[in-house]
Amino acid sequence: MRGVSAKSLQSVLRRAAESTSANTPSTEIASELFEAVRVIDSSNQLVRLLSDPGRDEDLKADVVRRLFGGRVSEAALEVLLEASRCTWSEQNHLLEGIEFAGVSLVLDKARGRGTAHAVEEELFQVARLVEDTPELSEAFDSKRDDVPARVGIIERLLGGKVDEATVALAAQAVSFEPEAKVPARLLEFANFASAERDRRSGVVTSAIALSPEQQERLTRILSARYGGELSLNYEIDPSVIGGLRITIGDDLYDATIFGRVRDARERISA
């Protein structure tokens, strides 16, 4: 996703991250979101309504509440409402946004166990395995309309051999968008996991070392801003003179004296 859809995706992911503080387990919320994607996708009219930026937000919210209220947790409902409020440049981006929110919650659970990176690697490996094994590819292709059978193949193939999050994500990959090639779906999730890892790590550069208390406070503030725990590396660079330069994923916040002087020079010379 790019442009407006990318911004909307980040809003939905933040809402999903905030939902993990609720009493409902993150994996349960993820399962509810995966099921909601299937329900919404079953109706072209519903997809068009919820993804149409020209439709009234209150109308879309009412539809979401009537369709899912009481059937999913309050946490999952809030994610669905956020997705309906966002602007998507393409209809399918709405579905992808909700699905990725579920994926992010599964990864959060793995991150808490310290296995998120392993899940990422396992998804890449399973994608290669399916692609390099004609019998597996044919088995999935022959069961396009039989979701339980496709999930059963995944569970027999991976059960007890990989992280439980890998099994859950692989099962989702084969149960939604059955017309898509399984390796492509697995790689989509693996690449998302990689992007999430980058998005949740950052570098803070300062002229002098920050105290442990300052580092803890900054980490807490930025984690709240990004809707989930961040892993920050702290570097010292005397050339920044003063202030902080923070890089998180593709985001750059330059509040250093060096940066301000540079910007001033650029404005003067422009």
Note the gap between the termini.
33 Å
| Strand order, largest beta sheet | 2-1-3-4
| Count of discrete structural domains | 3
Mean pLDDT across residues: 86
SS content category: alpha+beta
The secondary-structure element order is: HHHHHHHHHHHEHEEEH
Bulk shape: globular
The portion of residues assigned to helices is 55-70%
Poorly predicted parts:
none
Q: State Rg.
A: 21 Å
Structure characteristics:
8% strand; four-stranded mixed sheet; 270 residues; 3 domains; alpha+beta; 13 helices; single chain; 4 strands
Give a summary of the structure in a few sentences.
The protein is α+β, with helices and mostly antiparallel strands and about 270 residues long. Helices cover about 70% and strands about 10% of the residues. Helix 5 (about 75-85) packs across helix 6 and helix 10 (about 165-175) crosses helix 11.
Describe the protein.
The chain is an alpha+beta fold. The protein has three domains: 1-113; 114-198; 200-269, no CATH class. It is 68% helix and 8% strand. It has helices at 3-19, 26-41, 44-51, 57-68, 74-85, 91-113, 116-132, 134-142, 147-158, 164-175, 182-199, 212-226, 257-269, and strands at 201-206, 231-236, 244-248, 251-254. The chain has a four-stranded mixed beta sheet. β1 (201-206), α12 and β2 form a beta-alpha-beta unit. α1 (3-19) packs across α6. It is globular and about 65 Å long. The chain starts with a helix and ends with a helix.
